[in-house]
Amino acid sequence: EPIPVLGLKGMFKKMLEEDAALVIWTPYGGMMDKIPEAEIPFPHRSGTIFMIQYYRSWSDSEKRPDMRIKWIRELYSYMT
Fold it and tell me: Rounded to whole angstroms, what are the CA distances from 18 to 1, 2, 21, 64?
């Protein structure tokens, strides 16, 4: 099912907590639904609307990279 508007608003609010956060949306469906499963080795087919990639960068000199990782995990948990 599509992500509800309230869920997207919460995601955007969470993203504003960080200064270098990125969410990448890869849409599935459409043409992917028309290709038979036996044609190519790609398991994400029927019923999968899109893939979401969560990204947060930091420098090597970052004092607390664990806090950045924690933030990504919290965002992922919120979205699931």
Answer: 28, 25, 6, 14
Q: Which residues pair with 51 in a beta bridge?
A: 26
Question: What is the value of pTM for the model shown?
Answer: 0.70
Q: Rounded distance, CA 19 to CA 56, Å?
A: 9
Give the closest residue to 58 by CA, choosing from 47, 70, 49: 70
Instruction: Give the C-alpha separation, 46 to 37, whole Å.
Output: 10
Full residue range of the structural domain in which residue 72 is found: 5-79
- Total domain count, the chain: 1
Average pLDDT of every residue of the chain: 83
Indicate which CATH number applies to the domain containing 38: 3.40.462.20
| Token pair recorded at residue 49 | 């609307």
